[in-house]
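Case study: Phorbol esters/diacylglycerol binding domain protein.
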Amino acid sequence: MKPEKRSAGSRKLKSVQYYAVLNHVAFQLFPDEKPHSAAVMSIDTRQLCHVRLVTAADVRVADAEQIRRIFHIMFDDRDNGSTSRNASTNDLSISSMSQKDESWKNHDFQELTFHVSTYCDICHKNLSGLIRPAPAYECKNCRLKIHKDHINSPQLTACKYTGVVREWLLMALTREECNQWVHLLQRVMASHGSNPISRVSSKIRHQPSNSL
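Here is what the predicted structure looks like once written out:
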């Protein structure tokens, strides 16, 4: 992947390529595809909190094509001795000021209006607009974005934010692979090991927190 070309002095999307492997036990990133390589990053699948696609409202430095290939993972990091949220506030950015705070199913919602391309995590329809964007909520912890009308929807999943988490932004090689990773990781989270998946692997890129 080549970073998007920008004018002098502007920030560029930075990433490191890894080889990702997922099974029902762990999601791991390896430096290469060699059989005996040691994982440089590893998540116990029982520690996964949230997995979702990102939008332009989330990622500060990426073009439209790159955004379609990026997904966001949040996982419990208490085993590594963390005492607070490790992700920088630069990782994911809120597009406008909070107007109202509400909580529902453990979410800490704030009412927002999005003026950049953003989609609802429940109905997947447009959540943004240049003139009169639809009323929306975003959870300040897990970044879930929904139409205001979905606040009582049975499809609204509970927020699993623990207060001791890390976040990864990962970019797949293609949009299709990105969607597949999100689907498989969400499936692993939902099954809690009761429905093991086969081993899945592919090349993937990891964005450091200071690059977005």
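For the exam, be able to explain this: The helical segments are 64-67, 175-191.
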